[in-house]
Amino acid sequence: MPCYECENGKWKFGQTGNCQYDSKSECETANKDYYAEETYDDYPQAATTNAKRAIKYKEENGSDCGTIVGWTRARQLSNREKLSRSTIARMASFKRHQQHKDVPYDEGCGGIMWDAWGGDEGIEWAIRKLEQIDNIIKNQEDFEISETTKKTLTNKMEEHNENVKDLKVDWNPKVTVAKLEKVYKRGVGAYYTNPESVRETVKSPEQWAIARVNSFLFAMRNGKYRSGKHDTDLLPDKHPMKNTEKKEKNMAKKRKYYSDEEHDHHFHFTQEMMEELHEDGRLEVKVEEGDQEMLILFTYGEQESEERNPEEEEELTIEDVEMFKDYFDEVIKNLKDSK
């Protein structure tokens, strides 16, 4: 999701962002955590050409084919945006629809949506790339760190722990050699799986891995990263950047469904419910009336053709949700204003 220039000369983050930045660099700096994520843009030019062809046909002739996710993917490929592992995995899984890929654009959805997802070249690249990424991640656990590097990490651990021994924070700022070794191994893996993200001044995977360790130690001391986030699962409890799993929520205990004098059903969206919609793109609400129970699913996105193939429907990734959450906010606002 790169920064785009608006008609008024300002810049916005993503297609649905607000035109609030004075320059592209300001936009990218304000959203540096997105750019710091390990992403990949080494897919073949043919995948971009395929996506552009599908978009061009849709714009010139109209089409009810596909989902909002599919056309988001087409825009990403046509703009040569960087793709995360989860997005690449979705592209690879689209292989299951290849039996429909030869359907002409004007006779059905198979061909146009196949191209929207990158076509033969894009999907085959995704399959190979996903295997490459996962193999390196899997092999990280077996990667042997040299004695010299272990000594370096030990020295960094001792120096860091000495510097933070009197630090007054809500989390435990100290580290262990074992934790630094995990960060180091991930840095080596990132060097090979995402070479485009490596700075030109970096000459080896070991150098890139040590830089990642230094960045992690900075976050342990300061409660934030100097640049992009990484290894948040290794941060201690109560650290402000800690990546914790979403807590289970019993929505049935919250009062959100009732009737009033003018309406048969009135759903009140709490802040917590809105956050769940933003994060997951869906929200399940359990309604209880005496001994009766009803489970209602709320989702959002473009209205699709009634003739769509349910087997081609794709779930939203976090990236997709982020791209369209401003649109959803506007929908909710309009609903509230219309009361």
Task: Please outline what is shown here.
This protein is mainly alpha-helical. It contains twelve helices and six strands.
Describe the structure using short key phrases.
mainly alpha; globular; 12 helices; 339 residues
Question: Could you characterize what this model shows?
Answer:
- By secondary structure, the protein is mainly alpha-helical.
- 47% of the residues lie in helices and 8% in strands.
- The protein has helices spanning 24-30, 32-36, 45-61, 68-78, 85-93, 110-116, 119-139, 147-163, 177-193, 205-222, 271-280, 318-337; strands at residues 3-5, 11-13, 257-258, 266-267, 282-289, 292-299.
- The strands form three sheets. A two-stranded antiparallel sheet has the order 1-2. A two-stranded antiparallel ribbon has the order 3-4. A two-stranded antiparallel sheet has the order 5-6.
- The protein starts with a strand and ends with a helix.
- Residues 244-261 and 302-315 have low confidence and may be disordered.
Series of H and E elements: EEHHHHHHHHHHEEHEEH
Over all CA atoms, what is the radius of gyration?
24 Å
Alpha carbon gap, first and last residue: 34 Å
Beta-strand share of residues: 5-15%
Name the average pLDDT: 77
How much helix, percentage-wise, in residues?
Answer: 40-55%
Largest sheet: 2 strands, antiparallel
Main sheet: which strands, in order across?
1-2
Shape: globular
Structural class: mainly alpha
User: Helix segment count?
Assistant: 12
The strand count comes to 6
Residue runs with pLDDT of under 50 for 5 or more positions: 244-261, 302-315
